[in-house]
Amino acid sequence: MKVKKMDHICIAVKDLRAACKIWEPFLGKEKPDDLYLDEAEKIRVARYWIGEVGFELMESTSPDGDVARFIEKRGEGVMVIGFNVDNTRDAVKTLQHRGYPLIPDARGVVVRPFRDCEYAFVHPGKLNGVLAEVIDYQWNELK
């Protein structure tokens, strides 16, 4: 497995609109570059491109969502760091072989679809408390 670059950083927020108003002047942006809802993950996301790295503000759409639980336990802040890999499924096999525990969704699925790619989460217990994501998203090829 080879990490090609840092792909994105996700910030868990209670109120997406309010967070956008705080971050946009800081980032020099007037609006998100990408605004989307991920029903499966129970999140609403405002993504801003900073060079080739996505900066994402995530709000839970449900009190039982992962973002809501994260905020309840730790407060707002950095929740996920995503790393771009060539192939998520190959990366998962390598990580499992190396002893990194992966986090399945509620159905037990480790590798999940997102747009034209796949991603998986590595348990923060193995990575100094950081929830890491491997993703094979090729965003500049899709623009």
Query: What characterizes the major β-sheet?
Result: 9 strands, mixed
In helices, the fraction of residues equals 10-25%
Residues in β-strands, percent: 35-45%
How many E strands? 9
Distance between the termini: 25 Å
How does the overall form come out from the CA principal axes?
globular
Please give a structural write-up.
With 143 residues, this protein is of the alpha+beta class. The chain has 4 helices and 9 strands. Strand 7 (112-114) and strand 8 form a beta hairpin. It is globular. It starts with a strand and ends with a helix.
Produce a short descriptive summary:
The protein has four helices and nine strands; from the N terminus they run E-H-E-E-E-H-E-H-E-E-E-E-H. The chain has 143 residues and is α+β, with helices and mostly antiparallel strands. A hairpin with an 8-residue loop joins strand 8 and strand 9 (131-135).
Please specify the SSE layout and strand pairing:
Blueprint: E1 3-13, H1 16-27, E2 34-38, E3 43-50, E4 53-60, H2 66-74, E5 77-85, H3 88-97, E6 102-103, E7 112-114, E8 117-122, E9 131-135, H4 139-142
Parallel strand pairs: 1-4, 5-9
Antiparallel strand pairs: 1-5, 2-3, 3-4, 6-8, 7-8, 8-9
Give a quick set of tags describing it.
143 residues, 4 helices, nine-stranded mixed beta sheet, single chain, 9 strands
